[in-house]
Amino acid sequence: MNLILHLLLDAAVIFGLAYLMPQVDVKNFGTAILIAVLLGLLNFFLGWIIRFPLNLVTFFLLTGIVRIVVTALILKLIDSFMDSFTIVGFWPALVIALAVAVAGTLIDRSAPTQEMVDSGYVVGLLSNLRIG
């Protein structure tokens, strides 16, 4: 469930920023979902290969910044092999990567933890919202 939420949120952020930024062009929301899936897959399979040496150079002090820069590079890579997605320049890709990171952090912090579910806290909150 959390994966689907992340993919939809990433797609919404990409699509929304494409609407706001003239340097970014996304054909439709389906394309934004495909971009979010590719971004997740490439970050999983390729991102750590790029991030690890950069984190070694920075002595793991700039891990968050390295992660955002690598995500921007992966967005530019996706741009290079997709016709329905265009980013003109590196800065717009960096803005999108930063927005995706912030949105992901907000979702991760607001999602209930396993301890909350096990203790019944989440069920207790939902049971107070009875309709009817």
UniProtKB/TrEMBL annotation:
The chain crosses the membrane at residues 30-50, 57-78, 84-107. Keywords: Membrane, Transmembrane, Transmembrane helix. The keyword Mitochondrion does not apply. PANTHER family: SLR0284 PROTEIN. This is Phage holin family protein. It comes from Spirosoma linguale (strain ATCC 33905 / DSM 74 / LMG 10896 / Claus 1).
